[in-house]
Amino acid sequence: MTVDPIEIEKVAEEFNLNNDYTYEKDVKIKGKSGLVHKFDLVVTSKKDDSIKIAVLRGMSDDLADDIMKFNAVATDCGIQLKALVVDKDLGEVETNLAQMYNIITIDKRSQQKSNKPELFGIRQLDDSVATAMKKGNVYMIAGKTGVGKTTTCLHFLVTGARKGEKGAIILTDTRPTEFISNSSSFTFGFDSFYKSKMIEVLELSDQIREMKYEVLSNKKEEKKFITKITTEIRKFVSANNITRLVIDPITPMLIGEDDFINMMMYSLAIPNVYTIITSNVRSSDLSFFGIEENYTSGIIKLEFADQTNGTRTMTVIKMRGGTYHTAPFRYRITSDGVVPAEEVSLPPTGGSLLKPFREAL
Amino acid sequence: MKKQIGLYLFTLLYVVDIGFIGVGIVASIMASYRPGATLTDDIFSTFFWTANIFFGIQSIAYILNFRRSKTFYPITKENSLNISLRDKVAVLVPIYNEDPEMVRTNLMAILNASDDIGKVYVLDDSTDGSAEQNKQLCDRLNIPYIHRTNRHGYKAGALNDVLKQIPEEYVAVMDIDQMPSPDFLRETIPLLDRDPSLALVQVPQYYSNLDTGVLANVANGQQFIFYEILTEGKSVVGNMFSCGTNVVYRKKALESVGYFDEGNLVEDIATSVNMISKGWKTLYYNNKLVFGRAPVTMEGYVNQQYRWASGSLALIPRIFKNIIFSKKFSIAAKIDWVASGLWYLYGWFYLIFLISPILAALGIRVLSINLTTYIIAWVPYTVLNLGTFIVTHLDKKASLKTVYYNMAANVVIFPVSIMATLGVLFKKRKPFKTARTGGKLPWYRFWPQLTIMAGLIFSIFVLVRSGNWYGYVTAFWAVFQLLLILPVFWLNRSPKQSMIDAQAFTVVR
Lengths: 361, 509
Hints:
The structure holds two protein chains of two kinds.
Chain A: H1 5-14, E1 21-30, E2 36-45, E3 52-57, H2 63-76, E4 81-86, H3 92-100, E5 103-107, H4 123-129, E6 138-143, H5 149-162, E7 166-171, H6 176-184, H7 190-195, E8 199-204, H8 206-217, H9 222-239, E9 242-248, H10 258-268, E10 274-279, E11 298-306, E12 311-319, E13 329-334, E14 337-340, H11 341-344
Helix pairs in contact in A: 2-3, 9-10
Chain B: H1 2-32, H2 39-71, E1 89-95, H3 100-114, E2 118-124, H4 131-141, E3 145-147, H5 154-163, E4 170-173, E5 179-180, H6 184-194, E6 198-202, E7 206-207, H7 214-236, E8 247-250, H8 251-256, H9 267-277, E9 281-284, E10 290-292, H10 298-314, H11 316-324, H12 331-342, H13 346-361, H14 371-395, H15 400-412, H16 414-425, H17 447-465, H18 469-485, H19 488-491, E11 505-508
Parallel strand pairs in B: 1-2, 1-4, 2-3, 6-9, 7-10
Antiparallel strand pairs in B: 4-8, 5-10, 6-8
Helix pairs in contact in B: 1-2, 1-14, 2-7, 2-12, 2-13, 7-15, 9-11, 10-16, 11-12, 13-16, 13-17, 13-18, 15-18, 17-18
């Protein structure tokens, strides 16, 4: 089968591989089952060979069947990143299948990469902030317990992972097992990305907690604490090619002093990495200590709007370096994650159960 | 006002103290030339009063620096990096046969401090096969990586080769065992930028692995006097020299002396001497902006001390030629340079102090002719000297433990100073080793310390049994010295892991 070079370029572009990739056509790969599967095309990053994209060329008439089979064989071969290249509009079934299996659809006909960047995979939010948000900056998601901060971050990580952008979440006050089981109960595929290490989950070590305790009792060592913690974060991020970092929540890593928070935020800005921190609200209506917000490049605030039906709102309070919508976006949290409030009462798409989901994180 | 009176009172005490050093020297000279003294008496007494002159100079330099540090050292805080400085800063990171894991970690801290401000260059002279890993790391991080296969000029050579080719005006040098805090450059570069007469700004080497064991604490005690007292004073008169890492230089200043001095083991001090004698000013900025690690193994510690000692000792002729005999420097500055230039001879003088009770037990009196002169000459001196030393340290927020460790450190490793002196005199070349190499030393290597301990215990018995006050006082002196040399037993141990090297995060699987 001849593969059009344009198709390879488009795949590489979609997965941000720049010109650093290799590809193989009509590859045979032995799966975990022992069966040998054939792929139309496999594109691999030169920088990180765990970034491997299986490509299905959507040529046949029975595309739905092909997609299901493609997903099964890719899973058998342990390939997480999947793309479907088409030159026609997809039907509803195919679109749903691709979405369900985390397959990125690439339209061969479009002249350039879709100019709608996807950061969270939540359309209303992406429309508002995705062009303004830049790598190398720190953004904050603020809100009360249970409002959906962690869920929004999960969208952010999964959306990245789907496109081959590795992510990491640092849990500072949640038990990891609880976090993983809760996150896996969403339908958007967190668990498979977690298992394949496209999303890494980290926990603060006992030593660093001890160190923070020492810093609190002896104010001299503050800079040492920041240096240590940000160095380790950067080391992990760099060693694992992580481009999306979430710290959930930031509060346990902070000491409520202006200089301290300023320096910590400054150091969390890592080149080529989106950093998102979450914060519970206490001192100001945006954060715990009341100063964190001053040192971030953007703030998204989550609030409960209607407790009776679980409606919440998401508002962009600040976003440096770009225009954004100021109107709040109404949403609910379901097993699909963050879903526009008006869509919850509509017939389900993608076949998931849309029961109101009380986030326990 | 109260502080002022305290300072005057303290100065007065110190002057009296120094006066007593003079009395001690006279007493010692008298002892050495008393009628009936043997040649042995003469030799040891001469040795003894030379030691007193040595410590007298050190004491004067110490008090001068302490006074300057208390009165003139400005407490400045700088955090106003100008945007225009951004393309003007280079951060040079020399590496030689280091643990690749440490390189990976600390390079991240260096990058954290350099984002948006400075360009990092890794200069790798490694010969142990770690170069390939370091290169891969730098390529991935997009950092210029320069690997030399010849070690021409050692660290100074590596720095010079790159310095001559880069456009940046300010150059920070950061050893790979150091972790700069994110604001290291933001605080130091503006100081350099504001004052065009400054050649360099040095910040402390702060040991942040004191939880590894006694050795790190002893090394830290030794650093304390330097980085909290002496350096502040030196900075006031522009005598501060570079310590090789945690320092930012003005490239023009380096250029003016033909870049780093490749002819000396301590290229940092050598280069500073060159720059200072050309009229450049230097500044010590006492803010803990870089976190380093003290040597954690006895072998590493001995290597470090040997290297510092022999490098500094080899510099003595140049310090005398360029500074002491130059008309450009004040008397106070010269005293300070004599003190720091000669410091690494200390082993010889601690030796005579250590053995003087043993000599007394053997009937060789080096201190004085009789009990009266002995008490007049030595009791007030010892009390005053120790007292001021402790008080000044406490004033600078040192703990009593730190004071003890500092005094103990020099006593414990006095043989290193002696070996280094002999090494320099006979031009013996030792292969270059960093403080991070090696492990525990075999116990036979401590024979000088152990012999002296045995001798001191012996002398205590003999002197106490002598039944006279001369003997009692000397026995007390022997006990005191025994306490200082005792930590030798706690130093040569396997280190515990420090919190600074512990994992900050665990990956959940």
